[in-house]
Amino acid sequence: MVVKETFRLHPPVPILPPREAMREFKVGEFDILPKTRILVNVWAIGRDPNGWEKPNEFYPERFEGSRIDFRGLDFNLLPFGAGRRICPGLDTGATNVEFTLANMLYWFHWELPNDMKREDISMEEEVGLACQRRTPLWLVPISNSSQVE
Ligand code: HEM
Predict the structure, then answer these.
(1) Contact 47/55 with Cβ under 8 angstroms?
(2) Per-residue pLDDT reduced to its tens digit, 26-66
(3) What pairs with residue 38 in β-bridges?
(4) Which residue puts its alpha carbon closest to atom 41 of ligand 1?
(5) Can you quote a single GO CC term (predicted)?
(6) Which of 6, 9, 55, 105, CA to CA, is 20 to 30 A from 98?
């Protein structure tokens, strides 16, 4: 649920690679002509108040008992895109994120350095090939060594 919520609010690819319309069709009241270049804004879809309650809030529990997934079939959550050009590394990517996060949380307790507060954490992002944090996230890992046995 945490991973889904993070992909919803911070998709690593905020705007999908461009598509080109093969034939004429309508989106809402807009006529899309053949050869129109289409950019799907996954970031905006993930924060659309028509699709999500309290869209800007980080609230992983929203996925509790929900079947919404990021495998390209739920069009309001598309961190890996959808259709023929959907990310072929979906399973590798998602497994790496889940596995790494699960291990970091299992083996360590995490604290903020010095007198830093949660509100002081910058959530600014910058876009290059993919979207990432603008500044590094500094945290203090405290080993849960009692779990070693
Ligand atoms: C969390 C990890 C990842 C995310 C969020 C991600 C996201 C995406 C997105 C949004 C697209 C565009 C899909 C579309 O246009 O519909 C894409 C394409 C692609 N991804 Fe990923 N990806 C991830 C990991 C990976 C990994 C691990 C690999 C390779 C091992 C990979 C290889 C590719 C390739 C080759 C394409 C281009 C596919 C095409 O245009 O036909 N990705 N990815």
Answers:
(1) yes
(2) 999 999 999 999 999 999 999 999 999 999 999 999 999 99
(3) 19
(4) 85
(5) membrane
(6) 55
Query: What is the amino acid identity at position 87?
Result: C
Output the pTM of the full model. Answer: 0.92
Q: Whose CA is nearest to atom 31 of ligand 1?
A: 89
Position in ligand 1 atom list of the atom nearest CA 42: 10
Nearest CA to ligand 1 atom 8: 80
Query: Nearest-5° angle of CA 105, CA 108, CA 110?
Result: 85
DSSP three-state, residue 24: coil
Q: What is the pLDDT of residues 59-93, one digit of tens each?
A: 999 999 999 999 999 999 999 999 999 999 999 99
Is 131 flagged in the annotation as binding?
no
Class of residue 77 by CB neighbours under 10 A (exposed 0-12, middle 13-18, buried 19+): buried
What are the boundaries of each domain within the chain? 2-108
